[in-house]
Amino acid sequence: ATTLGAAAEQTGRYYGTAVAAGKLNDSTYVNILNREFDMVTAENEMKWDATEPNRGQFTYTNGDRILNHALNNGKRVRGHALLWYQQQPGWAQNLGGSDLRNAMMNHVTQVATHYRGKIYAWDVVNEAFADGSSGGRRDSNLQRTGNDWIEAAFRAARAADPAAKLCYNDYNTDGVNAKSTGIYNMVRDFKARGVPIDCVGFQSHLTNSAPSDYQANLQRFADLGVDVQITELDISGSNQANAYAAVTRACLAVARCTGITVWGIRDSDSWRTGQNPLLFDSSGNKKAAYTSVLNAL
Ligand code: XIL
Questions:
Q1: How far, in Å, is the centroid of ligand 1 from the Cα of 117?
Q2: What is the pLDDT of residue 36?
């Protein structure tokens, strides 16, 4: 195969990228997107601040642009993200208690209903666990509505869009550590109690290498009966090409690793300004890391 998407499809997987609606009129960007990738994530356009800027008033213009571009070009879409402690509209940041709880559940239901039947997988909850050694939940306005907020969100998303796979997504969870183990325990509990969860996303914002137990960590989650996906991959540093190959091989070695998404197309598109962590240079040329991925797929 000569493109990332076609190469991934050889093993039944996808190769995706984050897309910004504002770049869909950049022909270099769109040419690479259309040629190389078969899965799309909206980089910002489906987040809470973008979709519900005022309480109860939903705005889907830019999210729909990305969704329609993807579907019209034969690509699938990962929805990102229904609930997250960041990129909340100001009005939600000022709520608490049952008022916030009602608002967040309504948000999940409304957005998942708008996109019903069109989303491969939703990041229902993003980044809810604390960094460091506690293995516990992150303090946030969402967490303060009650420890059951994550399962309530998953149940609401399932009711609104029964066809979408429902994922939990986080960062610094790429190896076996306290944070990933806290999430592992939550997923195990959800599966035991019948809370609807289908997949776990590993953002994989990396520097120079993946943890040595990266594959083993993916596998232990897969062994719980969920799909695993690499959802926001970008790798900075001089060992970039080797690290991209290692991440690719790890996913291919785990049967339930269903796909990889890089967090942007060209280095100039990356949120990691100045770190050049992506597969295409700022002119849109393939980098060594691109070839390394294509050869590993
Ligand atoms: C980032 C976007 O890339 C930026 O454009 C935005 O300013 C901030 O958010 N984890 C996530 C993503 O789940 O949504 C974040 O995306 C990067 C970290």
A1: 25
A2: 99
217 C-alpha to ligand 1 centroid (Å): 23
Whether 284 contacts 295, CB under 8 Å: no
What pTM was computed for the model? Answer: 0.98
ipTM over 0.95: yes
Cβ(292) to ligand 1 under 6 A?
A: no
Question: How many whole angstroms separate alpha carbon 231 and alpha carbon 43?
Answer: 11
Amino acid at 114: H
Decide: helix, strand or coil at residue 268.
helix
Q: Which of 263, 272, 278 to mutate to test the pocket of ligand 1 (most atoms within 8 A of CB)?
A: 263
The per-residue pLDDT for range 133-183, each reduced to its tens digit, is 999 999 999 999 999 999 999 999 999 999 999 999 999 999 999 999 999
CA distance 49 to 42: 13
